[in-house]
Structure formats: structure tokens, C-alpha cells
Design goal:
Number of strands: 4
Shape: globular
Largest sheet: 2 strands, antiparallel
Distance between the termini: 24 Å
Strand order of the largest sheet: 1-2
Structural class: mainly alpha
Strand content: 5-15%
């Protein structure tokens, strides 16, 4: 884990060659992923509709990207339609500290939702965000506006780079880690990021999806 005081600023790898190569990898990876997984998208869409015919297949949510810019992030819907409204009644059950909400047995999650969340399949529509340039394949998790409102200046360093579909936090324990551990892992990634590092994280992510860790 990165050894950093809460006053130390992180150094960002903004080398042009790396950023161009990363963008090419993002476009190719997202495009190939969307084509190769189109059959899975269809199956998940049918299952979501069978369980809850009235609700949409996809869930759209405002997230904060690079330099604090807002964008719409897409996921397969894994919760009941009124999940956002019901959140305020569940905040007291939050199981992680800091500017984040996690609850192991969240009553808002549907039956199909439990399966796709465990395997992180619910995150696959974010490949569209990658194609659009809102996100990268690898980077810090894009936070909610309400979470960023609670950030310290130190925490805001997570927003110095394009957020990712997966990252060091997701392959290092995910829900077993608290908010501050997540920030440290993200800053470690930002400090050390390279194409080789990105590829290692992508390979670890595939392994985690095949053999799920602590995702819920």
C-alpha cells in the first residue's frame, strides 16, 4: 500500500505516449468486449425483464469523472426501480466508513441482481462509457456527487485521472476494504500507472469475474 501522508500530493503519469496508447487500448478493448459479449447482454436483458417487466434493463446514474466532470454511467439494473428513494432508510446500515455506501444484504437487490453483482456482470455496460471517453478500462471507481461532497482535498486526488471500469481497489479486496483503503489504492495506481500495470489489473479482473471475490 502507498505510504503517503494526508497532506502529500500525488504525482500523475501524464506522458502523452502513455495516454494515447491507453486510449487506443480502451477503444479496442471496449469495442471487442461489446461485440464478443453481445450474447450475454441479450441473456441478462431477458432475465431482468422476466423478473421485473416494468423496470428498465439499464440503470443510468450521474457519476463524477476526471477533474470533477459529471457524466451518466451505465449498468445493468440490479435493484428494484425505487432503489434511490429507499436508500435514505438504509443509510444507518452502511457497512463501510467514509464517503461510500455498502450493505451486504441490501434488500433493494433483485434475484438476478445478486448474480450479476457477484460476478460484476452488472458493470459491463460501462464499456459504452469507455467508448465515449467518459471512462477508461482501468482507473479509480467513479464516485457519486454526494460522495465527492464529503471528500477532503486529499481524497479529491482520485479525480485527477479518467475513472475506470476496474482498478486496483476492485482486484485487492473490494468490499472488504473501507473508503480510506480505497483512496490509498487509487492514489497508488495513479502514481504508478503504466500500460503494463493496466494489463495486469485487467487480467486480475477477469480472474475475479470467473472466481468472484467479495463483490456484493
Amino acid at each position: 500500500m502507498i505510504e503517503a501522508s494526508h497532506h502529500q500530493n500525488i504525482i500523475v503519469n501524464d506522458k502523452k505516449a502513455y495516454l494515447i496508447a491507453k486510449r487506443i487500448m480502451d477503444i479496442c478493448g471496449a469495442f471487442i468486449g461489446l461485440i464478443c459479449l453481445s450474447w450475454l447482454f441479450l441473456i441478462i436483458a431477458i432475465l431482468i425483464k422476466l423478473e421485473d417487466p416494468k423496470g428498465p434493463v439499464f440503470f443510468k446514474q450521474i457519476r463524477i469523472g476526471k477533474d470533477g466532470k459529471e457524466f451518466n454511467m451505465y449498468k445493468f439494473r440490479s435493484m428494484v426501480c425505487d432503489a434511490e428513494e429507499r436508500l435514505k432508510d438504509l443509510l444507518k446500515y452502511n457497512e463501510v466508513s467514509g464517503a461510500m455506501f455498502k450493505m451486504k444484504n441490501d434488500p433493494r437487490v433483485t434475484k438476478v441482481g445478486k448474480i450479476i453483482r457477484k460476478t460484476s456482470i452488472d458493470e459491463l455496460p460501462q464499456l459504452w462509457n469507455v467508448l465515449k471517453g467518459d471512462m477508461s478500462l482501468v482507473g479509480p471507481r467513479p464516485p457519486l456527487p454526494g460522495e465527492v461532497a464529503e471528500y477532503t482535498e486529499y481524497d479529491k486526488q482520485r479525480l485527477l485521472v479518467t475513472p475506470g471500469c476496474t482498478g486496483l481497489w476492485q482486484v485487492s479486496g473490494r468490499n472488504d476494504l473501507g473508503f480510506h483503503e480505497m483512496v490509498e489504492l487509487d492514489l497508488q495506481y495513479i502514481h504508478e500507472r503504466s500500460l503494463l500495470y493496466d494489463m495486469k489489473i485487467i487480467l486480475k479482473t477477469i480472474k475475479v469475474m470467473v472466481r468472484p471475490n467479495s463483490a456484493y
